[in-house]
Design a protein that fits this description.
Layout: E1 9-15, E2 19-28, E3 31-41, H1 48-59, E4 65-70, E5 75-83, H2 90-97, E6 109-115, H3 121-125, E7 128-137, H4 138-150, E8 154-160, H5 161-174, E9 185-191, E10 196-202, E11 205-212, H6 216-227, H7 231-239, H8 245-274, E12 278-284, H9 293-301, E13 304-307, E14 315-316, H10 323-328, H11 334-340
Helix pairs in contact: 5-11, 6-7, 6-8, 8-9
Length: 347
Amino acid sequence: MKMFSRQKSLVGLDIGNNEVKVVELTRTPEGLELTGFGWGKIPSPEETLDTVKAVMRESGISCRKVATSVSGRSVVVRYITLPRLDDEELPETLRLEADKYIPFDRDEVCIDGQKIESFSEEEDSSEEMKSILVAVKKDLLQDHIDQVQELGLIPTVVDVDTFALGNSFDLRTEAGVQDEDTDKAVALVDIGATKTNIHIVRGKTSCFSREIYLGGKDLTDAISRREHLDEAEAEDLKCDPQGNEQMVANAVQPVLDEIAGEIQLSFDYFENQFDFAVEEVFLSGGASQTIGLQETFERVFERDVKTWDPLAMIKVREDLVDVEALNDHLIQLPVALGLGSRIQDCV
């Protein structure tokens, strides 16, 4: 959705199953500034809206225009091959081709997409091109927009979680943080409470994305079962083992192996389809800090696995933001920051 007057700020609102993360990014002549931040735990699904309201109020953010995102089984992302088309022809072609790729009736979904950048002269001269096809069920999209409006906010952008993750990582490239070899493929792996997002990018080009429905809650449940603890006790132990590191590591290892195995299957598929390798893996999400996770991933993937700083290019207004709280939750913020970065697309 385009805006009709130039704006300076945009709120990135990431509403998860367990937590809400909110950032305000402001565009200045020197670049992006973080001018607001908030975080809150969602006690129950029924308290989601109240939690968002409280977080917005406590953060002091006054901007009402927000970028949000959707995810889940009602969101389909496919990377497809089409005859080479002009930009004007792409939307209608995607709509007509959608039935081949999505498990929903065409009339039930909103369809969008874009061309994928070519990486070789051979691809440029081919009679075919690669494209991203995105389909979101209309009822999910409308429910999400209604929820945002009920909060007294203006939904300016509705994105997909995995693309927001990629947008956040793009800021590193602009900041000169990323490796000079921009042609290499890297995997962004964001591990949340109930799902793991995988987004493989090459430079600034999205090449593959997938959601795996395993996450932090599965790790918590594994501790709960093994140690006969309730969910709250198991969650506390996962986040702060307090000398019980080996016990936690033993409890979560089978789940870590399962998550790593699913991610490796995605890498194998991608590498077979595109004929180039995923060279590095970058972690984010609260559950990515679980004991043994990084070591398990390095063992299974046999490649570098590291965390990254989503604020590398963004100046933090320390007079407006609780810096200590921001640093405590930094690894959970890429999606929210990627959403807020859409201020750069606003006219």
